[in-house]
């Protein structure tokens, strides 16, 4: 796997190993060869992600994770499987870019009483699924995406992130 990792915030010491583990598990679940997949991941702070959120989503506030797919793979039918990504002329599969904010992730993990590593792993899986055409706007799509997240995280030995008990 080609992972272009940029750490703009020095607090992101946990990101490199978590990213490798989460991305590898997600690509394996999706049946994609990690050797030919290309992903860019930015570890930043709330100020940077708020600027990105304002620029690309017209929402000038911090968020936990943002994704920019290399191509639109979304299914047209609610709850449908997205299209499979295809290799480009070089044989690589460019999937897109993800940004994740330390401050928001830390706040959310603390508020939920979850280990930061588990929460960040979930958000990387979540962001990568967005690159692969999954979404959670429509109920049927959310059910599909959350089921995949549960399965991938369960394979990693992590708890269901949607279990609120």
From TrEMBL:
Coiled-coil annotated residue ranges, if any: none
Localization of this protein: Cytoplasm
Keyword Hydrolase: yes
Binding site for Zn(2+): 126, 130, 136
EC number(s) reported in the record: 3.1.-.-
Predominant location category: cytoplasm
Function text: Single strand-specific metallo-endoribonuclease involved in late-stage 70S ribosome quality control and in maturation of the 3' terminus of the 16S rRNA.
Protein name: Endoribonuclease YbeY
Organism of origin: Ruegeria pomeroyi
Lineage, highest ranks first: Bacteria, Pseudomonadati, Pseudomonadota, Alphaproteobacteria, Rhodobacterales
């Amino acid at each position: 796997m080609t992972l272009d990792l940029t750490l703009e915030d020095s607090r992101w010491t946990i990101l490199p190993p978590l990213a490798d583990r989460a991305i590898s598990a997600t690509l394996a679940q999706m049946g994609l060869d990690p050797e030919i997949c290309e992903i860019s991941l930015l570890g930043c702070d709330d100020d940077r992600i708020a600027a990105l959120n304002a620029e690309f989503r017209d929402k000038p506030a911090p968020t936990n994770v943002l994704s920019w797919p290399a191509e639109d793979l979304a299914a047209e039918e609610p709850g449908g499987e997205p299209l499979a990504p295809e290799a480009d002329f070089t044989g690589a599969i460019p999937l897109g870019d993800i940004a994740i904010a330390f401050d928001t992730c830390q706040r959310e993990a603390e508020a939920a009483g979850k280990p930061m590593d588990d929460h960040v792993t979930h958000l990387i899986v979540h962001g990568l699924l967005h690159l692969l055409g999954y979404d959670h706007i429509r109920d049927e799509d959310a059910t599909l995406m959350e089921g995949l997240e549960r399965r991938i995280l369960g394979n990693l030995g992590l708890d269901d992130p949607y279990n609120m008990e």
